[in-house]
Structure formats: C-alpha cells, structure tokens
Design brief:
single chain; 1007 residues; nine-stranded mixed sheet; 14 helices; globular
Length: 1007
C-alpha cells in the first residue's frame, strides 16, 4: 500500500549460538501514513540467495537454495508497525531477537528468549553482511550467476577460478546494460588538474563512478583462456564535450587483453573499426574512426586513436574521444564472462548500490562493418574421438544431403565467433541467436555461450556439458549447428534469445515434432519467424525423450525460444540447427514437413549412417500430415494439472491440455489459460458470447470452453476434472460486457461459497448478497455497479443464472436476456467465469501443447469498489495448545503459547486486518497492502513456483502442496503479539525456494 513512498531494505541475519543450524533473512518496507511491513524468513543452512524489490509498492521477496540442497523446515513471520500516522522502522536487532525467541518456542523451550526494552533500540553489531563461511563455501564465479538468481546491480563476492588458489574478490556487477552480467574491470574517475593513475594489482574496482583501479582476469581471478571472456565493453565521457564512447566487442585480441593485461600479438586499428556494437548513449567518433593503435599498456594507455580523438587513461590527459586533456572524465572497462566456473554453495552479499537503467537495444555505428566475416570451413572429416566433434565431422560430410533439398536457403553472415549474430545480412538479426544452457542443479542458465566453430568441445561450460558450434557455408547447405553432450544426462534446459530484425512485422510459430520410426528416442521442436524484407529465421532443437516443455515469444522481434526438461530427468545429447530462407525480398516460410525431414536426415548423419535421409523436391511442399499437436503419450504421460504449472514454465495465454485430478479416472481436458490478468494462471470455466436476437444457452457437460471471446460452453471442476474440495480453488473471477452500455463487470473473489460453486455447480448452502457485496476485488477496466450494489441473489443455476442483482443491474447468462449490469436484454454480450486453482495436483512428465491464441494484455493493478468491505474479518484465535502429532501444527501450538513472549517486547506493533483466508491481504488497514503477502513455494525438481498459496489458519497442514512440502499459516491477534506466521515442512529436505509477492500500499514512498 506504500504506493512508491518510503523505503525498502533487506539482508541476511545469523541465528544465535543456541540455534547455529538456522539462518534468517529479513525485509522491511517503511513509509509515511502506512504501517510498516516486516518479513522474517528462517530456514536451515546458509546456502540460500535472497532477492527483493526496492520498489516500496512491491511485496516481492525470494529465498532460493544454492547448489541444489534444500531444507526440511522453513518459517516465515510477518508483522506490521505503526507509530502515530506513520510506519515504524524496526532495526535488525529486532529481527534477530524475534528469530531467536521464535526458534526457542519452535523447539518447545519453556523459557523463550525475550526482548529487553534496552536491547531492541541498540545499534546492530551482530549481523554481518554474509553468513560465516563454512569449509565448503564457494562464492559464485560470475555476475551471470548472481543475475540468474534475481540479483540487481551492486557489489558482490566473486570466486576465483577453481584450482587457481586465488582468494575471492569483491567486484561490481552491472545487471542492466545490454542484457546485464557485466563485471567492472577498469574504473578511472579523474578530477580536473589531478594525475591519479589507476591502481593495478591491489583490487578490482567496486564502483563505476568513483575511484581509480584496475586489474586483469589472469592475475585477479586465475583466468587463462580467451574463451572464458564473452565480450569486453568500453565507456568514457568527459566534461570537455558531450560525446560519449560506449560500445562492446567480442574481438579475440581484445578479449585476450582482458585476461593477460597486454596485447601479446600487437594491437591493430582493425580490432576496433570492425566488430564493435554501439550501446546506450554512444555518440562518439571512436571506435569507428580508429586509424592507429598502440600495443603497450593494455587498456589503460592509448589503445586507439583517430583523426578526431583518442582513448587514454594512463596520464593526466585522460583522453575520451578527444586530443585535449584537463577536464573531469570517467573511463570504464567491463567484461562479461563465459558462465560459471564452479557452483556456489552459500548466499552472496546483498547489493550495496542501485543500477542506473539504460536502454539495452544496440544502435549501429555509421561506418562499422559486420562483426565477423563469413568463413567457408573445410569439408574434411578427420577421425576424432570426442562425441561432440564426431557428430560435427559426420555433419560436415552429409550437410549437402541434409539441407540440399530445402528451397530458398539464404547464406547468412556471422556465426563463427562471438556470442550473437549481429545482423546476418538483410536485417535478419539485431544481435540474435544467443544461446544459454542449463545443467542439473543450476537454478538459471549459463551463457550467452561463445561460438566455437568446431573447437574446444572438451571444455565443459555448465556441469559436465561440453559443446561446440559449426557454421556451414558450403553451397546449398547454409546451416548453423550447436551440439551439446553430457555424460551424466545433465542437460535440463536450453534457451535461444536476442533480437531479430523483423521489428514486429510478420509472424512467429512453433511447436513439437516426432522423430521417425528409425530414431524413436529423439523428439524435435521448431520455431520460425517469417517477415517481409528479412530472411526467415528457423530453429530446430532435437533432444532425447518427449518430457520437455517448449516456450517461445510471438513477438517477431524476439529470438526467445526455450526447451525445459519436465520431471527432473535430463538428456545426454541435444542438437540445435539454425537456417534462414529468403525468396525475392521476403522471408521464406518452411512448413513442418521441412523441419521433420531435416531432423530425420540429421539424425541419420549423427549416427554415421552412410545414406542419410534426403528431402525430395515433391515432399517438402506437401501438406503436413505427420506432426500431431502433442507427442504420443507414453504409459506414464501425465498432463500438467493447472494453468499455474504452464505459466511457471514460461507459457503465455492459450489453449493447453490439463490433467484431471489424480485418482479421478477422468480424461485430460483442453482448457484456455489466461496468463496476463491479475498475475495470470486463470482457467476459463464459463464462456458465453451471445449475439443479438439469439438464444444460445451455454453447453453444459460436454467440454470446457477454449476461447474467452467465441462460443458458449461451461462445466464445473467436479464433473470435468474430479475436484472435490473448495480449498482446491484459490479465486473465482467474473467478467461481462454488453453492447447496450459501456460499463464492464470485472472482479475476483475468494469467498468460500462462490469457490464451492466452481467445484460443484450449485449453491448447496444457498446464495446471499453478502457473498458479492464484500470481499470482491475489482480488476482491470471494471466500471459497473455490480457486485458492490448487490441486494439479492438466487441460489439455482450455479453461475449461469441470476446470481446477483441490484437496483442498477443483474448478471444472467442462461436466457436470451443475458444481463450484464443491466435489466434489459437484446444486445451482444460476453460473459466469462475463470478459476485459479491451488497449485499442481500431480507432476507433468511430457511437453504440453503450444498455445493457439495470444492474450490481450490488461493492467494487473486492482482498483477498489467504493462500498466493498474488507475481504475477511480479523479473527482472534484460541490460545489453547492441543497435543498434535503433525510437525507443522506442533510448531503452531508452541508458537501460540509463546507468541506474547516472542513479539511482546517490540514497540508499536500494529494489529492489521485479514490473513485468515484467501491468498493475499487485500488492505490490512491504513493502506498497508494492495493485495500483498502472496506466498509461493518451490520443491526439488520444480522449475518454477507453486502458488499463490491459500491461507490455512492452522488447518490442512498434512495436505502436501508441492512435492512432499506441507504447510500451514496462523494469524495471531492476541494483544501485544500481532504477527502472521507460515510454517513449511518437507521430510525429504525438498524446500528449495520461497517467494512473497503482491502489491504494498506505500505507492513508492518510504524505503
């Protein structure tokens, strides 16, 4: 509820010596006029990474296990503070004292630690920046690792290369510019009339805008190879003029300087004139005007100069695109490293500074040439023993047979070195085809991967995954190939990303393929982007097994395309082929038969078949009859059971296959998922799109609707999918509009009676106006009288008949009247009912369908009904502590007994509203929230979070929600101990992630 006011802060804590196995992490949001929001997460072990939002209007706060080892117990406490009209700011000693006292209570200590009045206002002296390192502590080794875990720009601890014997270093990471993950290597901020030279060999710079320091990767972190550096980025500005130098390059000679500190093979103007990409705010003559370059001094001396200027940071002149010195100047050199060199096993520091956002789309130097020339590789196929290079050798031999039958192949440029194809010719790309790989145990992707052109295959990049790339430019076989191999079957994710040149024109499509009967163990997934004036871009990913989920962007300007293993089982082999097509001035659209034929022929070549499958001219233009929507189901196939599962894997709005509840015996159903509105994961339950003067009634019991804007169908969760409990439904959402007026009904509710109708189809206990007048939250575009004006409600017909009516209108979709906030019928109308389900009921084991439609984006911030009451009353629970055997409820019982001791010493506690039922606190009182405190949990093997979790108020603890994780929540309203608690338990130590999200009321104020 802060609405951007105030401030937010967060960080790690230590447990006391009595509880050394537990660590804590806190976040607080403090603003004027709103109660402060205070999170405390307690979990076993220190190997966790924390991330949070500095926007005080956001409740975002996550904790993620590092290294794949989860926890068996997790506790999350929430309280609010208010002093006068403003939020009260608790210091870290408050948080630590609550943590210690809670842990005493959780272990049933009879005398829990209390908070002395003189203690809670003391200066914090016991919360270091990082947990104490254990003997096995290893810091992350690149900024990429921090960024993939959600960290923003700031100072972090980077581990030296494994085996180097060098210590960890503090570095500055920029997570914003050009995709982020940049590490600061040089920083020289010279003031007028000074001659401070960069300090070498003492430390890496920790600020881009202060100080003067540099080092090189070899001496500082033990790097030895140019391949370990993806790009080098240069920036300078001066008070002498307004031009800015800002560009990046992947030139191998320049990357070598970042490693060694010197131009061992000499410097050349061609290193700078060609292959450089301008970044945000670049406006200088350099580097495109370079006509000379010196080879001494590394990056600190005169590394390039032209008729209009120089770069020089060694002397007092400090040139920046100029020959004259004497002004204030800033010089920076950054590197982006080629992925992790070892896995982190504990939580990094929190960032100490905030980034300055800059545009990430590159511009083009007026005179810059393409980043790398097209190379025609040899067609020799030497005998090799590496499993990756073996396939390349075979591919080179058979490439003409594999690709030769495809019409209109385009010989695109680049793809030999670097990490992206900068253009490709005819505006095919704007730095696209960036590859990322994910190995077992990694929480994010490693990359972007450098192109290797048939070299370095035995150098593992992530886990034990080795790879190489190969660009074929042989006539008639223009194709680009990446091959990945993991002896441990550790390939669990692959991503292509970057920018295409289509600029939003044309179309993108994607989907699954089957391998032929000759190669039944391999499946393929394709994506194509076809636009006028640009060559088409065609991806083909081939991998073992069908248990993969595909995701791609419908924006033709985006190269985004991912494949993610489902169920935790990876692959040992993966192949990625890229080709382009051009017919006249336009992109050529290949059909799925083209993709399947290339796949079959490639697999023949990869297995060294002497006569690979070829593509007959009469075959490639045939209508596709062999590519079904989904892979054939194996006996163990299980479809995902909620839209949440699809959304957590990156899928957008569309039609998907949803599995019925385990044990129900019902078949899978096709459903429509909306991933946009109010956080997404909505499943369409009713859809009635009535046309004027018709009387089509919704079809019941035949199918669930698959379009929100066409047809007329509905069903209920019990009959359709085997649901039996109201707790399995988080929210129900209602929408209607009519041509008779401009008002729109659009709201959601978590009322238990309404959720029960979604399950059973009827108001078994009767309908009431109070179900609709209170506890409903308006969503985007809502402008109607209903539901706030409801004064009567009928209890027959479920959601299809007159479920509420007021002085100004009704909802009715059963008869030809089809009322929408009105008493008159006769117009066109659209009625929709959506449900959001309470997480997965079983784990998917194969890839879902691709969406068939695109969502219409809508604002997600809720508005407030003028007369709506709070969603749920504050309940004062009993303080009895019955004997229970559940490990979760045991802690609750102990907590109830000791809550006054745990919280009683904190000043200015605020008794906020809500938190008993539903999935968020809608306001809490005094604009504390705008639907905040939404919880999400992640179990081992899940690629995303399950949630938002429904509040349980000390019930249903034995019902697992994700993996074997059980949980409950408890809101204490006892005088002086106003606190909200969530407790999670996993017998297998399967808790690997936790997230709090939603909107605060601060509106950006405070901190």
């Amino acid at each position: 509820g802060a609405d951007g006011g105030g401030f937010a802060s967060w960080g790690p804590l230590h447990a006391s010596d009595v509880h050394p196995q537990y660590y804590g992490w806190y976040k607080k949001v403090v603003a004027n006029y709103d109660p402060s929001i205070n999170h405390l997460i307690i979990v076993q072990g220190s190997a966790w990474m924390q991330s949070a939002s500095s926007n005080t209007d956001s409740d975002f706060h996550t904790l993620t296990a590092v290294g794949g080892t989860g926890a068996s117990k997790m506790y999350y406490l929430l309280w609010a503070g208010r002093s006068g009209d403003n939020g009260y700011s608790y210091n870290t000693n408050h948080f630590r004292s609550v943590m210690n006292a809670f842990l005493d209570a959780a272990s049933a200590t009879s005398s829990p630690t209390t908070i002395a009045p003189t203690q809670v206002n003391a200066t914090l002296t016991v919360a270091p920046t990082l947990p104490t390192k254990s003997p096995t502590f290893i810091s992350p080794s690149t900024c990429t690792e921090y960024m993939n875990l959600g960290y923003t720009s700031g100072v972090y601890t980077i581990g030296a290369k494994a085996g180097s014997g060098l210590p960890d270093r503090s570095v500055y990471c920029d997570m914003v510019e050009d995709g982020g993950a940049w590490m600061l290597l040089y920083s020289y901020n010279r003031k007028l009339s000074t001659n401070d030279r960069p300090l070498y060999g003492t430390h890496l710079p920790t600020s881009p805008t202060a100080g003067y320091a540099h080092w090189h990767l070899g001496s500082a972190l033990g790097y030895t190879s140019t391949d370990e550096v993806l790009d080098v980025r240069f920036y300078c500005s001066t008070s002498r003029h307004s031009r800015v130098v800002h560009f990046k390059t992947s030139n191998q000679h320049i990357r070598a300087v970042a490693v060694s500190g010197s131009f061992g093979n000499g410097n050349s103007p061609t290193h700078w004139r060609y292959g450089c990409t301008a970044l945000s705010n670049h406006s200088a003559y350099l580097p495109a005007a370079t006509n000379s370059a010196s080879s001494y001094g590394g990056f600190q001396d005169r590394i390039f100069s032209g008729n209009n200027g120089r770069w020089l940071i060694y002397s007092y002149n400090a040139y920046c695109d100029d020959y004259g010195g004497g002004g204030n100047s800033s010089h920076q050199v950054w590197v982006r490293l080629a992925g992790p060199t070892r896995a982190p096993t504990t939580s990094p520091t929190s960032p100490t500074t905030s980034p300055t956002a800059a545009p990430t789309s590159p511009t083009t130097f007026p005179t810059a040439a393409p980043t790398s020339p097209t190379v025609s590789p040899t067609t020799n196929s030497p005998t090799v023993t590496d499993p990756v290079l073996d396939v390349v050798s075979s591919f080179i031999s058979f490439a003409p047979s594999i690709m030769g039958g495809l019409p209109n192949l385009y010989d695109f440029n680049d793809g030999i070195s670097g990490t992206c194809i900068s253009d490709g010719g005819h505006d095919m790309y704007d730095c696209g085809n960036q590859m990322y790989i994910q190995a077992t145990g990694m929480s994010g992707y490693a990359g972007p991967l450098p192109y290797r052109q048939r070299t370095s295959a035995t150098s593992a990049f992530a886990g034990d995954i080795t790879y190489t790339t190969y660009k074929s430019a042989a006539s008639g076989s223009y194709v680009w190939l990446a091959i990945f191999h993991s002896p441990s079957s550790g390939i669990v994710g692959f991503k292509v990303d970057g920018n295409n040149g289509a600029d939003g024109g044309g179309f993108a499509s994607w989907g699954p393929l089957h391998a032929s009967d000759v190669h039944p163990q391999y499946y393929g997934w394709y994506k194509k982007v076809v636009a006028n004036y640009d060559p088409s871009i065609n991806h083909l990913i081939i991998v073992q097994g069908s248990a993969w989920m595909q995701s791609a962007s419908s924006n033709t300007d985006s190269d985004f395309h991912t494949l993610t293993a489902v169920g935790g089982t990876g692959a040992s082999k993966m192949y990625y082929l890229l080709w382009a097509g051009r017919s006249g001035d336009n992109g050529y659209s290949y059909n799925t038969n083209h993709f399947r034929s290339v796949m079959n022929a490639f697999l023949d070549a990869a297995s060294a078949t002497s006569s690979p499958t070829t593509i007959a001219p009469t075959q490639v233009n045939a209508t596709l009859t062999v590519a079904p929507t989904l892979p054939t189901k194996s006996p163990t196939f299980i479809s995902p059971s909620t839209c949440t599962e699809y959304m957590n894997l990156g899928y957008t709005s569309g039609v998907y296959t949803i599995g019925a509840k385990a044990g129900s015996g019902l078949p899978d159903r096709s459903v429509y998922c909306d991933m946009v509105e109010d956080g997404g994961a909505w499943m369409l339950l009713y859809s009635y799109n009535r046309k004027l003067s018709t009387n089509d009634r919704p079809l019941y019991g035949t199918h669930l609707p698959t379009s929100p804007t066409a047809g007329y169908a509905h069903w209920h969760l019990g009959s359709a999918l085997g649901y039996t409990s109201t707790d399995e439904v988080l929210d129900v959402r209602f929408y209607c509009s009519t041509s008779r007026h401009s008002r729109v009904v659009h709201f959601k509710t978590s009322n238990q009676h309404i959720r029960a109708v979604a399950v059973s189809g009827s108001f078994g206990n009767g309908n009431s106006p109070t179900h609709w007048r209170y506890g409903c939250t308006a969503l985007s575009n809502h402008s109607a009288y209903l539901p706030a004006a409801t004064n009567s409600a009928s209890s027959y017909g479920g959601f299809q008949d007159r479920i509420f009516s007021g002085n100004n209108g009704r909802w009715l979709i059963y008869s030809y009247n089809a009322y929408c906030d009105d008493y008159g019928g006769g117009g066109n109308s659209s009625h929709q009912v959506w449900v959001r389900l309470a997480g997965p009921t079983r784990a998917p084991t194969t890839s879902p369908t691709s969406p068939t439609t695109s969502p219409t984006a809508a604002p997600t911030s809720p508005t407030t009904f003028p007369t709506a009451a709070p969603t749920s009353p504050t309940v004062s629970p009993t303080t009895n502590s019955p004997t229970v055997t559940d490990p979760v409820l045991d802690v609750v019982s102990s907590f109830i007994s000791f809550a006054p001791s745990i919280m009683g010493g904190l000043p200015n506690l605020y008794d906020f509203n809500d938190g008993i039922s539903g999935t968020c606190i809608s306001d809490g009182g005094h604009d504390m929230y705008d639907c905040g405190n939404q919880m999400y949990i992640q179990a081992t093997g899940m690629s995303g979070y399950a949630g938002p979790l429904p509040y349980r108020q000390r019930t249903s603890a034995t019902s697992a929600f994700a993996g074997d994780i059980t949980y409950t929540t408890y809101k204490s309203a006892a005088s002086g101990s106003y606190v909200w608690l969530a407790i999670f338990h996993s017998p297998s130590s399967g808790i690997v992630g936790f997230k709090v999200d939603g909107n605060n009321g601060a509106d950006g104020g405070g901190f």
